[in-house]
Amino acid sequence: MATSSERIYLAKVYWGMSSSMKSKTVNGFKWGLIDNFANSGVTFIVGLFLARLLSPEEFGVLGIITVFINISVTIIDGGLATALIRKKEVHEVEYNTVFYSNLVVSLLLLGILCAGSNFIAVFFHQPVLGPTLSVMSIVLLINALSLVHKTILIKKIDFKSQAIFSLVSSLLSGIVGISMAYNGMGIWSLVGQQLSRQLLLTISFWIVGKWVPKMMFSVACFKDLYNFGLKLLAANLINTLFKDAFLVVIGKIYSTKDLGYYKQAEQFNAILSNNFSQIVRKVTLPALSQIQDEKERLKVTYRRLFVSVAIVSFAAVFVFAAISKPLLLLLIGEKWLPSVKLLQIMSLYAAIYPLNILNLNVLNLCKRSDYLLKLEVIKKILFVPVIVVGFFTNMEIMLWAAVIYYYVEFFINGWYTKKLISYGLFEQVRDVFPIYFVSLSVALLASLLTALPIANWVMLLLQVSVALVLLVLVYRSIRQTEYMEIEKFCISKVRRR
Predict the structure, then answer these.
(1) pTM listed for this prediction
(2) Are 319 and 403 members of one domain?
């Protein structure tokens, strides 16, 4: 937490940004929140209908498909989008070079997945995987057609357009998925939902967006972007492979039913942690890039962002975990009860995930893709024991092992941040540990209320009310600087309306 002298200085710099950039960043956060939470809200509601109509096994099959799609999407991007974002000025030829590169790679991977789909189906003992994966892989080509459009909007910190496109696409694709599920199409309803969403999103970018690709390609531009992107690609690919290793282990060693429970817990977890992390990733990098050459301003601004993100993330994720049992029982029924404990364990590492994203953004900002690659290699070597634990134990123990791993990852990331902007591990822990302790303690107190013999909806209201009151009282009593600014900002927005 900031000292009194630091507070005076921080107030003067006000995150170290110009008023125009601060306004753009705040607006970016606002529309980023609308995009992620409105979109995930629609996805969540659609998921509730689908969870009641479909079985855990069918969600498990989708989980296996997701592994191969995620890996392919990572390869298609190749770190080129991030390379464009970090550049202060981007020329038309660079946009076109990236567009055609993405297109060619997506076609190659589409062919590979279609050719190997039957082998994958045999490996997981799921015959339905063959045709569903082949059809689902079309999403790779559709997504590649809009990657540059999204990159341009991110550079402009224009998340309003993305929010509108995402919301409309999620609504219409949700209708498609639910309609297919009602008509007994099973796993195909999930495939149809994913394909239609990406198709609608891409069409929106092309119709409303102002950029149209031209017949331009520069080998020199490609090499320049790829020199940065290659290390980033390797880092992202390693990260994706190991992140999805859970799905592979659960789907192969356990069962698709277990994988379905895991995916449902992960979906609920994504409502807060993953969505908030995406906002942090998308907004902070272009915002901080504006002051990347001013080391003192950068450190002060980053510290404010770090603490503010911790306040929001810890409170939201831990309280959400506390209310997970009555929430899941109320929304999707008792057949998904095994997902509750998985979600609660996930919350312990989900809460710090946005902070890890912030630290990794520093590496992108400072153009240290070599550090990113080195970090991913180190961290994934450390992740191997987690996978081994999964082979010989069960899902819950594997997730507890993952909790330990993600906290080790946080410590490693913080050490590298110290080298680049002089705000490292020990300062980070000092600043956020009191916030962590307060949020976790309040969540644990709220979770004790589940022992009361009352209806699930009453329990939800009681738990949320108690948690919010306690959090506000504690932060106000200690006059936590960043919390007071967040509260002031929220109140001002409410009063304007």
Answers:
(1) 0.71
(2) yes
